[in-house]
Amino acid sequence: MRLVGPSGEQVGIVPLAKALELAQEYDLDLVEVAASARPPVCKLMDYGKFKYESAMKAREARKNQAHTVIKEMKLRPKIDPHDYDTKKGHVVRFLKQGDKVKITIMFRGREQSRPELGYRLLQRLAEDVQDLGFIESNPKQDGRNMIMVLGPHKKKTEAMAEARQAQEARKAEAKANPGKSQNAAESDLADDDLAEESVEAPAEATAEA
Fold first, then answer.
1. Residues 73 and 157 in one domain
2. Given strand 70-75, what is the order of strands in its sheet?
3. pLDDT value at position 155?
4. Smallest Cα–Cα separation from 174: which of 158, 191, 161, 162?
């Protein structure tokens, strides 16, 4: 076998008995790291520590993984101004989180004969959030509905990083400002936790007007 020392140095090609002798001498484990190589490659290491470090790296990779999330927002073509502002606020939040947003206009009754109402509403919404997102899929009729997909300018990984930084900054501010009420501080921290959880959860959210 080809043996690698505990510091990564090349020991050379040695018989199994010699490798086991060195492992005992260093009080380490003899671990095969490349079974398909010719000759196979083994390394002297602390196998328990190696398993722990590998698990931590895998955990960190999962934590930083960016999930592709599509949120959904449903509106009526004759939505009133207050409801429109509320729905737009949700779309803004989703785009800031780095999520795509599927906008669905639902037509009922005679509204189905006025598809231009839905088209104008979708164009208006796209223009209102153009600083945060872009039209990824143009408006198209789908039965009684009209659908458009908005994509975020900000990447998901960037949104996740910003959310964590904001949470850490808020926690630091709460600790540095003892004059702030305990309830207010706890409320801020809870809001940040919810915001970060919302960014990372790979689930579809639907809101209907």
1. yes
2. 133-142, 145-152, 100-106, 70-75, 206-208
3. 78
4. 191
Look at residues 12, 33, 63 and tell me which one is the last residue of a structural domain.
63
> Pick the residue with more confidence: 97 or 156?
97
Burial label, 54 (beta-carbon count in 10 A; 0-12, 13-18, 19+):
exposed
**Which is more confident, 49 or 179?**
49
Q: Which of 63, 86, 109 is the last residue of a domain?
A: 63
**What's the pLDDT score for residue 185?**
46
Mean pLDDT computed over 17-33: 93
Lookup: tokens for 159: 């949104």
- Are 109 and 144 contacting, i.e. CB atoms less than 8 angstroms apart? no
147 and 97, same structural domain? yes
Q: Residue 39 sits in which domain range?
A: 2-63
Using alpha carbons only, how large is the chain's radius of gyration in Å?
28
Q: What does the pLDDT look like over 140-185, one tens digit per residue?
A: 998 899 999 999 998 776 777 777 777 788 887 777 776 554 444 4
Cβ proximity of 209 and 75 under 8 Å: yes
Question: Is residue 88 classed as helix, strand or coil in its secondary structure?
Answer: helix
